[in-house]
Every structure is written in structure tokens, then in C-alpha cells.
# Entry
Amino acid sequence: MVIPVALGCSVAMVMPISTPPNAIVFSSGRLRAVDYLPLGLPMFLLGPPLAVRWCRWVG
# Structure
């Protein structure tokens, strides 16, 4: 159960502070929070279900 949760959390790119590289870029002030939505929202919605399905297929 831990592996799908970790994989699902690693694709949470919709938040500017979700990963250290995103936090560094966001702190520069050149990007706004809404700039993360076009690519981050589909990853946020599709990542966890795909991670669970992948783990069920592999496991």
C-alpha cells in the first residue's frame, strides 16, 4: 500500500510547493500558482489511479 501512495504523491505537481524544485522556482517570483495548473492538474487527477493499477498489475 505504501508504494502506490508514494507514486501518487510524487505526481502532485499542481501545488507550487509540492516538490523541492517547484518550491525553488516558485520562490523566484517569476511564476504564479495558476501557472502550475495546465500540466499539474491532469497529473494530479490521473497519477494516483494509474499508480494503484500499476502496482496491482506488477504485484
Observations:
- The chain has three helices and no strands.
- The mean pLDDT is 82.
- Residues 2-58 form one domain.
- The CA atoms of residues 17 and 53 lie 27 Å apart.
